[in-house]
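hey so i finally got around to running both of the ones u sent me last week. sorry it took forever, my laptop kept dying halfway thru and i had to restart like 3 times lol. anyway pasting them below in the order u listed, first the sequence line then the C-alpha cell line for each. didnt double check formatting much so if smth looks off just lmk and ill redo it

first one:
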Amino acid sequence: MLVAYRVKDRAVFLYGFAKSDRENISDEELLTAREVAAGWLAANSKRMARAIEENELQEVFGDDKGN
C-alpha cells in the first residue's frame, strides 16, 4: 500500500496491491506516485473539498477513539 502522509495534516491513499499479485511497483510507477502525492499534500482545503465533492477523492473518518 502506498500512502502519502503529512504529520498532523492528512494522509492520502495512493495505491494498493496484494504481494501475491506482484512483488513491487516499478521505478516509473513510484515516480508517478510521488508526483501525485506531492500534489495532494500541497492541495489547499478548497481543492480537497472540491475533489471529495466530485468523487475524485473519498474522505474516510476514524472512530471516536481517535483512530
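and the second one:
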Amino acid sequence: MTMLVLMLGATVLTVVPASSATPVGVSAAASASALAAIAPVAAKPKPQRWKPPRGVVFNNPKGSARARVAIVARIRAAIAHTRKGDTIRFATYSFDRNEVANQLIRAHRRGVNVQIVANDNYISKAELRMQKVFGKNRTKRSFMVFCKGSCRSGPGGNLHIKIYSFSSSGAADNVIISSSANLSYGASFAQWNDAYTVYGDRKLFATWVKVFRQLKNDRRSTPRRIGYSSADRSVIFQRQLAGAAAAAADGSTEVRTARRGSSDPVVQRLGKVDCSAPKGYGVDGRTVLKFIVFAWYGKRGDNIAAKVVDLKRKGCRVQVIDSVLGESARIKLQRAGISVKAADWDFGKRPASGDPELEVYGPRCYSHYKFFTLNGAYDGKGLKAVWTGSENWSGISFSNDEVTLRLNGGPVYQRYTSRFDSMWNDPDATHKAGVEPTRRPCARS
C-alpha cells in the first residue's frame, strides 16, 4: 500500500489512498472531517469593537496641541472607523482643514459614501479638491455641493448648521456629532467650541437625514421647522418664515404679552422658565440660568436681553458670557444687576467671516459657544438641561438654516455648567465686558 506523507508545519499527516481500506475504528466520514479541519480556512474579519465617545467634548484654543484639536480628533476618529457602504453626511458653514479633506477622500476611495453640503460665502481649496474627487451630482453616492444662501429657503441667509454624521462608525450606528465648530483651522486655534455625540437613536438620526436631504437639494422646502423629542433630548432644525425673519431684523418682535407671544424661538423657550425652583433643583429655591453665546446683538438681541432681564427681576439667578454682545443689550443686562463677562481677545484686523481675502476689525480669539444651561423650573416641572447648537442671537440667524439641541439630565448639565464656570473664573478666558483687550491668550496657529 502506498501512503502519502504531508508535512504541515510541525504536523505530520499520513494520508491513505481512497482505494485502501479504512483504518479499523475510523469511519470514512471521520477521515474526511479530519482533513477538512486542517485545510486552510479564510480568517473571519474581526468584529468592530471601537465606538465613538458619547456626550460632549470641548476644545481649548489656549491649551496644548491636543486640547486645541479635541473636536477635530473626535470627527477624524469617526471617519477612520467607517467601512465600505457606510454613509458620511456633513453640513457645515466653512471647511478648510486639509487633513480632514484627505481623510474623507481616502474614505471615498475605500467605498464609503461621502456627502458634504457647505455654505457658499467662501469656498476653500480643500473644498474644491473634494468636489473634484466627489463630484457635485447630488444623486451620486458621494458629492460636495454648496448652497446658494440658506439651503432650504433659497437666496438669503446661510447654511449655519455644523453636523457631522455617520450611518455607522466602528460598532456604533446612527452617529451624530453636533457642534458649534466648523471644520476650519480657526475653530481650533482661535475659538472655544463644543461638540456633542449621540448614537443609536434611530429616530433622531432619521430626522437629521430628512433635513440633510432638504439641505442637499438647495431649494425651498417645507416644513421649515423640523423637530424630534425624547426623554433624553430634543432637536429643532429651523429656518424661520421670511416674515418672521424680517420682523426680527427690524425689531417688531418685542417681548409681548401672553395673549400674543413672540415668534422668536429663544424668547419662547425662555417664556417657559419659572424662577421659583422645585425641591431638588436650582439654588436656594431659585432657578439658575447661565448663558454663553457668541453673537447677541441688534434688535433681536435687545428683545432676548429684555426677556432675560424679566427673568432676573422675577428672581432667577443669571450669568452671561458673550463675545459679540451689542452695547444696548449689555446695558440692559447690567442695569438689571446681571453679571456679564466677555470672552473676546486680541482685537485688531482679521479675515472677514466667509472671505479671508477681506479684513474687518474685531476679536481674533474668542468663545464661539452657543449654549445656555438651566437648573430649576421649566414648562411646569423641575429640570436640569442644556440648549446648544449653531444659532447666534441676532437677526441674521432667522434667515439661516440652524439647529438647536436640548439635552436633559444632571450629568450633561454638569459638564456644560462646569465649562461655563471654568471660563467665568479664568482671567485668560473672560474679562470685564465692554473693553477690547489686545492680548491674545489663544495659541498661534
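quick thing i noticed on the 2nd:
The mean pLDDT is 87.
anyway thats it, ttyl
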